[in-house]
């Protein structure tokens, strides 16, 4: 039996189509999407080099340290310089501190109960003087002054040496206190004459000067009563 050639060509085409369809069903065609696939957080962080993370931390620490240094520097620059008033108060405080040391010595040496009580009051008064003056001093840019004068140190050392030879009686103790009060009065006078103190500071120094003068007058009377 013979088939026309055209029929043979059609049969070959049909076979090829069937084979192509079968291959397509076994191996589906892959399509490419234009939308990018989102990346997970872990994937993104995983791509960051460890060195970059350490560099960022180091920069943060250095920046914080520089900021702290800058703040400290500005605080130092903004600190007030001592004023002329501070210099006057500082000088006066040396003598007020001498006054404290002098009356503390009198308390330790005196055997008269009444006089010892009075000397204790003068110690407290002198300490309050120093507290008030130091408060004004620090406000004016100075630092608290707790030192005594060289003259006061030498005088107290001389009195100690003298006490080793002769016993100090109440009149001698009074005499030393009067001498010390004279120093304090002179220091107050010089501070007020300097004209650097004004306002409440000057009023405070004037008030202390008046009380020192009253103390001096009373010590002189007590000394006369010891004769």
Tell me what you see in this structure.
By secondary structure, the chain is mostly helical. It has helices at 5-26, 41-47, 50-78, 84-109, 113-139, 150-165, 170-193, 199-225. The longest helix is centred in the first third of the chain and has 29 residues, at 50-78. Residues 1-35 and 37-48 have low confidence and may be disordered.
Which descriptors apply to this entry?
227 residues, 8 helices, elongated
Structural class: mainly alpha
CATH topology category name of the domain at 84-225: Ferritin
Percent range of helical residues: over 70%
CATH superfamily of the domain at 84-225: Ferritin, core subunit, four-helix bundle
Low-confidence stretches are 1-35, 37-48
Instruction: Give the CATH class of the domain at 84-225.
Output: Mainly Alpha
Average pLDDT, all residues: 77
The CATH architecture of the domain at 84-225 would be Up-down Bundle
Q: How many distinct beta strands?
A: 0
Query: Could you tell me the strand content as a percent range?
Result: under 5%
Instruction: Report Rg.
Output: 49 Å
Distance between the termini: 173 Å
Order of H and E elements = HHHHHHHH
User: With helices defined by DSSP (H or I, 4 residues minimum), what is the helix count?
Assistant: 8
The 3D shape can be described as elongated
Largest sheet: none
